[in-house]
UniProtKB/TrEMBL annotation:
Pfam families: Amidohydro_1 (PF01979). Its cofactor is Zn(2+). GO terms for molecular function: guanine deaminase activity. This is Guanine deaminase. The keyword Metal-binding applies. It comes from Undibacterium umbellatum. Its EC number is 3.5.4.3.
Length: 442
């Protein structure tokens, strides 16, 4: 460790340390696990992650090692699909996606024309993400540019790596939420120029979904996505059977719902497709070929009764997968709770999701599906130091269960199935403590 300087910006954390180098579904040696581990951070980046016994002798004199023994350090969770304006309408009852959008979503999103309201919700939303250990998210704002300004300002103030974008929608929604084909694209381009790659902020071109954009808007959104290839793109696809039928009637010439986006040039690296439940093999082949990625949203899919994600076919066709909450369609900000429901979704579909895979999907899987491996998602040298401290004793029940887990798999499984925001003892972003659980909050 000769390259460690005597810089005072060096920090070291002792705990069990887990992170991934590969997808455990396809590789035997996919992860590193250091039961008595040390994570070394300097100037907001990872210097090393390894065995305490090997690494601690390399630390310069006078560095205090922060002692998290008994806890696990893992990379910060990555939530690849979430709507910050829906924070205040989480857990709103409706019989399915389309009535839920009409009754709750659109009226709630109307309020984000006001930048002060946007700022206040963005502040709460980011607090909640950090409480749950999520350090990066792909975030839908609303149709109002103010909602995007407020979100990025809040994320930038905390130095978080976030991806967000202005919703594009110029038809099939209330008048008060409509932009125009040209106006929406112009506003998106202005936001790209202002925010994309400013500090840790990244922009996502965000057509809400095919039914709420005209042909003209879809065409321009696809062109914008080609003109700015290093931006992200996010949208919804094949979530619900009524929605799929609606898209078929709106775009009768398309081979499938996904094909609508394909026709407009929206399948590409850094394109994140929410849900992907009602895809067929030809769709999945196009996703894999174009390096487009899936954001699986199990709590939302159960809540809205949308359907079950097909893990078996997605894996057989090597589609890039990630895990997401989809709040407010999703019922929790917690990626641990989301793992719990992903596990059950896999079981109902006849497959089995090991705990290591769930933790992969919530960390490196998310980073890879966003083409951000090396930047976030694991503890490779020089990666950004976004990490969380998980407490296996966070609740009486977790403590009791984890007191006799006999393998890493069992320990992670207990955390995934019993864990939530209380399990996150601390959250660090770019090496800085950004959340610490208060004593007595379990
Ligand atoms: N499809 C279009 N908009 C939305 C949304 O806000 N939430 C979900 N779950 N699906 C959508
Ligand atoms: Zn969504």
């Amino acid at each position: 460790m000769s390259n460690i300087s005597s810089n005072t910006n060096l920090q070291a954390y002792r705990a069990s340390v887990l992170h991934f180098q590969q997808d455990p579904a396809f590789h035997e040696k996919a992860y590193a696990w250091h039961e008595d581990g040390l994570l070394i951070v300097e100037d907001g980046r990872i210097v090393a992650a390894g065995e305490y016994a090997q690494l601690h002798t390399s630390l310069p004199e006078g560095i205090d090692v922060i002692d998290y023994r008994g806890k696990l350090i893992v990379p910060g969770f990555i939530d690849t699909h979430i709507h910050y304006p829906q924070t205040d309408m989480i857990a709103s009852p409706a019989p399915g996606l389309l009535p839920w959008l009409e009754t709750y979503t659109f009226p709630t999103e109307r309020q984000f024309a006001d930048i002060n309201h946007s700022a206040q919700v963005a502040h709460f939303f980011i607090d909640e993400l950090l409480r749950c250990g999520t350090t990066t998210a792909m975030v839908y704002c609303t149709v109002h540019p103010e909602s995007v300004e407020a979100f990025f300002a809040e994320s930038e103030a905390r130095n978080l790596r976030m991806v967000a974008g202005k919703v594009l929608m110029d038809r099939n929604c209330a008048e008060f939420l409509r932009d125009t084909a040209e106006g929406g694209i112009r506003e998106s381009e202005e936001l790209i120029k202002k925010w994309h790659k400013r500090g840790r902020q990244l922009y996502a071109i965000t057509p809400r979904f095919a039914p709420t954009s005209s042909d003209a808007q879809m065409q321009l959104a696809g062109e914008l996505a080609q003109a700015y290839p290093d931006t992200f793109l996010q949208t919804h696809v094949a979530e619900n059977t009524d929605e799929v039928a609606w898209v078929k009637s709106l775009y009768p010439k398309a081979r499938s719902y996904l094909d609508v986006y394909d026709q407009y040039g929206m399948l590409r690296p850094r394109a994140m497709y929410g849900h992907c439940i009602w895809l067929d093999d030809a769709d999945r082949a196009r996703m894999a070929e174009t390096q487009s990625a899936v954001a699986m949203c199990p709590t939302s899919n159960f809540f809205l009764g949308s359907g079950l994600f097909n893990f078996e076919r997605a894996d057989a066709q090597q589609v890039s997968l990630s895990l997401a909450t989809d709040v407010g369609g999703g019922t929790s900000f917690s990626m641990l709770r989301t793992m719990n429901e992903a596990y059950k979704m896999a079981r109902l579909g006849g497959t089995y999701l090991p705990a290591l895979r769930m933790f992969y999907l919530a960390t490196l899987g998310g980073a890879r599906s966003m083409q951000l491996e090396g930047t976030i998602g694991n503890f490779g040298k020089d990666a950004e130091a976004d990490f969380i401290v998980l407490d296996p004793q966070a609740t009486p029940l977790l403590a009791r269960r984890t007191s006799h887990t006999e393998s890493l798999d069992e320990l992670l499984f207990a955390l995934a199935l019993l864990g939530d925001d209380r399990t996150v003892a601390a959250t660090y972003a770019a090496g800085k403590l950004v959340h610490q659980r208060q004593a007595g909050h379990n």
